[in-house]
């Protein structure tokens, strides 16, 4: 699984950090930090975080659990 956040799009709403705090965190008031290769056990939380982003700044490859995505690690 691989995460990419378009930091130019991100507006710091922090919905992702609220829904998946082990993967996303706010550094200061507006700077997002995240783990680009999160643990697969976070899949459900990540799906919710991606869906909750109001500006759709988060892209996640491998959230569907397909074998191709798992082999990409």
TrEMBL record:
<keyword id="KW-0479">Metal-binding</keyword>
<dbReference type="InterPro" id="IPR001080">
    <property type="entry name" value="3Fe4S_ferredoxin"/>
</dbReference>
<keyword id="KW-0813">Transport</keyword>
<dbReference type="Pfam" id="PF13370">
    <property type="entry name" value="Fer4_13"/>
</dbReference>
<keyword id="KW-0411">Iron-sulfur</keyword>
<keyword id="KW-0408">Iron</keyword>
<keyword id="KW-0003">3Fe-4S</keyword>
<dbReference type="GO" id="GO:0051538">
    <property type="term" value="F:3 iron, 4 sulfur cluster binding"/>
</dbReference>
<dbReference type="InterPro" id="IPR051269">
    <property type="entry name" value="Fe-S_cluster_ET"/>
</dbReference>
<keyword id="KW-0249">Electron transport</keyword>
<dbReference type="GO" id="GO:0005506">
    <property type="term" value="F:iron ion binding"/>
</dbReference>
<comment type="function">
    <text>Ferredoxins are iron-sulfur proteins that transfer electrons in a wide variety of metabolic reactions.</text>
</comment>
<dbReference type="GO" id="GO:0009055">
    <property type="term" value="F:electron transfer activity"/>
</dbReference>
<protein>
    <recommendedName>
        <fullName>Ferredoxin</fullName>
    </recommendedName>
</protein>
């Amino acid at each position: 699984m691989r995460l990419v956040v378009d930091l130019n799009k991100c507006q710091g709403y922090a919905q992702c950090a609220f829904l998946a705090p082990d993967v996303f965190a706010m550094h200061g008031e507006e700077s997002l930090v995240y783990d680009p290769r999160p643990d697969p056990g976070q899949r459900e939380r990540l799906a919710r975080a991606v869906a909750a982003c109001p500006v759709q700044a988060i892209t996640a490859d491998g959230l569907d659990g397909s074998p191709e995505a798992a082999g990409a690690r």
